[in-house]
Amino acid sequence: MKALFQFLPTRWIMTLATLGPVGHWRKMPGTYGSFVGLIWYTVFFHELDPFFYLLMCGFTCYLACEICTQAEFILQKKDPGCIILDEMVAMPLCFIGLQPYMRHHPVWWYILGGFLLFRLLDIVKPLGIKRLQALPGGVGVVMDDVVAALATCCILHLISIFL
Predict the structure, then answer these.
(1) Phi and psi dihedrals of 36, rounded to 5?
(2) Whole-angstrom Cα distance, residue 13 to residue 134?
(3) How far is CA 153 from the centre of its chain?
């Protein structure tokens, strides 16, 4: 198996894929991973220039695919619940292009709405999102979350237009 991070110790791969101990919390690890993603968005993305915002989203999604591929290989399981890096890297995608609206409306509304919509779409997986999990390796782990986040972004944009 050729992978970008195959040189890293197993412990490091698993720590990244599970966000340390967070992925091992018994109930709702995906929700906790999404919450970490909100912090990730707030600290590193909220004030970014749109070009760098998209660049960083693409780069982190790529890295997550590679890390999740390795984690699946280590665990010998397809998309195990303890792998929550995918939720974290998807959360900033929920807010692409919404910063101008956030200047005119309460930011907390977008953060809460984005979080709840993303969790709903990630859990329910409507409109074929579930089929994306069948993609091989880490791509299957990450892509369903990416599409759920982009759908969340579209819904938030539509709501913002009518506010």
Answers:
(1) -60, -35
(2) 22
(3) 13
Q: Is the whole model's pTM more than 0.85, yes or no?
A: yes
Unique residue bearing structure tokens 């709405």: 113
* Cβ proximity of 45 and 92 under 8 Å: yes
Q: pLDDT per residue over 105-150, tens digit each?
A: 899 999 999 999 999 999 999 989 999 999 999 999 999 999 999 9
How crowded is residue 52: how many other Cβ atoms within 10 Å of its Cβ?
11
Single-letter code of the amino acid located at 56: M
d(C-alpha 93, C-alpha 153), whole Å: 7
Cβ-contact 78, 89 below 8 angstroms: no
Residue 53: CB atoms within 10 A of its CB come to 21
CB-based contacts of 50, cutoff 8 Å, min separation 6: 97
Number of Cβ within a 10 Å radius of residue 141: 27
* Res 6 pLDDT > 50: yes
Going along the chain, which residue ranges are E strands?
Answer: none
